[in-house]
Design goal:
Layout lengths: L2 H5 L5 H8 L11 H12 L2 H15 L3 H25 L6 H8 L2 H36 L17 H4 L7 H16 L1 H26 L6 H4 L3 H9 L5 H5 L3 H11 L7 H12 L5 H6 L8 H30 L10 H13 L2 H38 L18 H17 L2 H5 L2 H22 L12 H17 L3 H25 L1 H12 L13
Helix pairs in contact: 3-10, 3-17, 3-19, 4-15, 4-17, 5-15, 5-17, 5-22, 5-23, 6-7, 6-22, 7-9, 7-19, 7-20, 7-22, 7-24, 9-19, 9-20, 10-17, 10-19, 18-19, 19-20, 22-23
Length: 537
């Protein structure tokens, strides 16, 4: 078997289904409500509590509402493709598993390595931000704040706080707690997540219900003088399109769309969509838990589509409230929702609004914690799927005999994420999440489309409607959002993927379960490596 033949070798749907029956498979304990809660738990978190303010203040203005719709449209197209594949092959691994079944081993490794980066950096970002929300809650309650030197990484304001030995201790503590919960078991973590999801749903609905009465429509229809100049001259919103010179062809359209509602034009609206895309990785997290679903053929599509639709409505509602309460250029980037209510409370000396600020901070903490639970779970299951295929060491796939969880991988990954979250600036952690997510969605859309041609006879409990329109449109929309991300983000992605390819060729290629089995089959047939046909399973 030549190297090229192994790189293109694929796993059949039958092989994936057989793996579910193995003695080391995970427990099937998740129903449609739990899966939807997992999606909502991963979606409603840093996106709604942080990204809304960043995108509105710096990228899209009030048109951040439209940015969320664009991002949701791209996600919705990908979600339909995810639902078809998750129902066909309900095993751990998400886009990695789907790529292995359609595109071959090397592309499966690339997408798996990309997902490791996506989930790892997302988890570390949220953990690092968790301390900020803890401080917001303590401030709202009138309690002493956590000392700045105890809640910042050693590279943030180190000159002011005096030591490069500083650590973000709240981030470290919450990661230890989350790791412990996940080692105990999926049932326990699912229960904890469901409680946290209910708390933050109540808070988000409260924000919308109370905030509506404080909306000033003028904040949507007038441009402050100081913000207008910045909006019209900022040329850094075209991302890779600007580097390639394509932006000059789009400038007329940019100016056509520019308005008080969209002060940054088309480029700002689309960059805002690329930024808030971070908020939508939750339904991808559902697909990584397919192996633990009671009835995956029914429950997976329900969990994926319902969680995405529900969270899109909530995002649009909150974005409209925040940009209506505060002029977009004055929105607090760190804690936009809590800050909007605290500013209004100070202006009106309202005890009700001060209480609302404390409630919002509590909801933010609940949101951050549930996102950590789901994101961490998802990354561990990507490791599990890759180790089962021999691309990573066997110890990674070892399941605890009592808890039936991948305990070793959970503990090691938890330690690594804890260290990264406690020592790395938040802005550096979050830069890589979006491009990794978008790449995964593109791969899934292409994989489902390809599998329709490769295996038209395969049983599909859920079929993506109008697949020949949905999948190509999903690819185009998500690629466009990728192109609006800056060049340095693309460079970091390429560097990460090169590192992954080195690991694959040094270890994964030689230990691949599929590659070793194919080699044995060719040997027993008396075929030489160069004579062996291109394998498909």
């Amino acid at each position: 078997m030549t190297l090229w033949k192994q790189l293109l070798s694929r796993k059949s749907i039958e092989t994936l289904l057989a793996e579910m029956a193995g003695e080391h498979r995970l427990r099937r304990v998740l129903g449609p409500f739990s899966l939807t809660a997992i999606g909502v738990g991963a979606i409603i978190g840093a996106g709604i509590f942080v990204m809304t303010g960043r995108a509105a203040a710096q990228d899209a203005g009030p048109a951040v509402v439209a940015s969320y719709m664009v991002a949701a449209f791209g996600c919705g197209l990908a979600a339909l493709c995810y639902a078809e594949f998750a129902a066909m092959a309900p095993v751990a691994g998400s886009a990695y598993t789907y790529a292995y079944a359609t595109l071959g081993e090397i592309l499966a490794w690339i997408i798996g390595w990309d997902l490791i980066l996506e989930y790892g950096m997302s988890c570390a970002t949220v953990a690092a931000a968790w301390s900020h929300y803890l401080n917001e809650l303590l401030l709202a309650l009138g309690l002493p704040l956590v000392g700045p030197g105890l809640s910042l990484d050693p590279f943030t304001h180190s000159d002011k706080f005096g030591s490069y030995l500083a650590l973000n201790f709240p981030a470290l503590g919450i990661m230890v707690l989350v790791t412990t919960i996940l080692v105990i078991g999926i049932r326990e973590s699912a229960t904890a997540n469901a409680i946290l999801v209910l708390v933050k749903l109540v808070v988000v609905l409260f924000v919308i219900a109370i905030g509506v009465s404080y909306i000033d429509p003028a904040n949507w229809t007038s441009i402050p003088v100081d913000a207008a100049g910045q909006a019209s001259h900022d040329a850094n919103r075209w991302g890779l399109l600007g580097v390639l010179g394509i932006d000059r062809w789009l400038q007329p359209l940019d100016e056509m769309i520019r308005s008080p509602f969209a002060p940054y034009g088309l480029s700002g609206l689309m960059l805002g969509a690329s930024i808030v895309f971070f908020a939508y990785i939750g339904f991808d997290a559902i697909s990584t838990h397919a192996e633990e679903a009671h009835n995956p053929q029914r429950d997976m599509p329900i969990g994926i589509l319902v969680s995405l639709g529900l969270c899109t409505l909530l995002y649009v509602g909150v974005a409209a409230v925040i940009t209506g309460m505060v002029p977009y250029h004055k929105i607090d980037i760190g804690a936009p929702i809590a800050a909007a209510f605290s500013q209004r409370a100070a202006a009106e000396n309202s005890a009700l609004l001060r209480g609302a600020t404390a409630l919002i901070a509590t909801g933010a903490l609940a949101g951050m914690t549930s996102v950590l639970l789901i994101t961490f779970q998802s990354q561990v299951r990507i490791f599990l799927a890759m180790a089962r295929d021999g691309l990573l060491p066997p110890a990674v796939a070892e399941v605890h005999p009592k808890y039936q969880t991948p305990h070793l991988t959970t503990i090691v990954t938890g330690i690594l994420i804890s260290v990264i979250a406690a020592t790395t600036p938040i802005e550096k952690l979050g830069e890589m999440v979006n491009i990794g997510t978008l790449l995964a969605f593109v791969i899934v859309c292409f994989s489902v489309l390809l599998l329709r041609r490769q295996r038209p006879d395969a049983v599909r409990p859920f079929r993506c409607p109008v697949i020949w329109l949905v999948a190509p449109t999903g690819i185009v929309v998500n690629v466009i959002m990728m192109l609006f991300l800056p060049l340095d983000t693309w460079i970091r992605l390429v560097v990460w993927l090169v590192i992954g390819l080195v690991i694959y060729f040094l270890y994964g290629r030689h230990h691949s379960t599929l590659g070793q089995r194919l080699w044995r089959e060719f040997s027993t047939q008396g075929l030489s490596p160069t004579d062996a046909p291109l394998p498909r399973d």
